[in-house]
């Protein structure tokens, strides 16, 4: 795997919010680490293929145990196939009892 980009979608977010949008040119896989002090939260990775559109849709990913999900409610590491998505963002729909940080690493296979 060739690392293409490393960044934070959100850092210490304690209120519901959407992250800034990030562009994806050649990335194929996004690995997301969700951590923080929140006692409960709900977030989704959203993607858009049409760069002229502002319509983003939830992307289904995998837990480390290979369970599928499109809403994250627990700290951990998650993997998403992002090939074909030109823009990505995180939607933190709820958070309580602390804050949430979302770190992402985009890679391309060899």
Strand content: over 45%
Order of SSEs: EEEEEEEEEEE
Q: What is the C-alpha radius of gyration, as a whole number of Å? A: 13 Å
- General shape: globular
Structural class per helix/strand content?
A: mainly beta
Describe the protein in words.
The chain is mainly β. The protein has one domain. Helix content is 0%, strand content 58%. The protein contains no helices and 11 strands. It has strands spanning 2-13, 17-18, 22-23, 29-36, 40-48, 57-58, 61-62, 68-69, 76-81, 87-96, 100-108. It has a 6-stranded antiparallel beta sheet with strand order 1-11-4-9-7-8, with no helix packed on it. The radius of gyration is 13 Å and the shape is globular. The mean pLDDT is 95.
Task: Summarize the model shown.
This protein is mainly β and 110 residues long. The protein contains no helices and eleven strands. The protein has one domain (2-98).
List the helices and strands and how they pair.
Elements: E1 2-13, E2 17-18, E3 22-23, E4 29-36, E5 40-48, E6 57-58, E7 61-62, E8 68-69, E9 76-81, E10 87-96, E11 100-108
Antiparallel strand pairs: 1-11, 2-10, 3-10, 4-9, 4-11, 5-6, 5-10, 7-8, 7-9
Provide keyphrases for this structure.
five-stranded antiparallel sheet, mainly beta, 110 residues, 58% strand, 0% helix, six-stranded antiparallel sheet
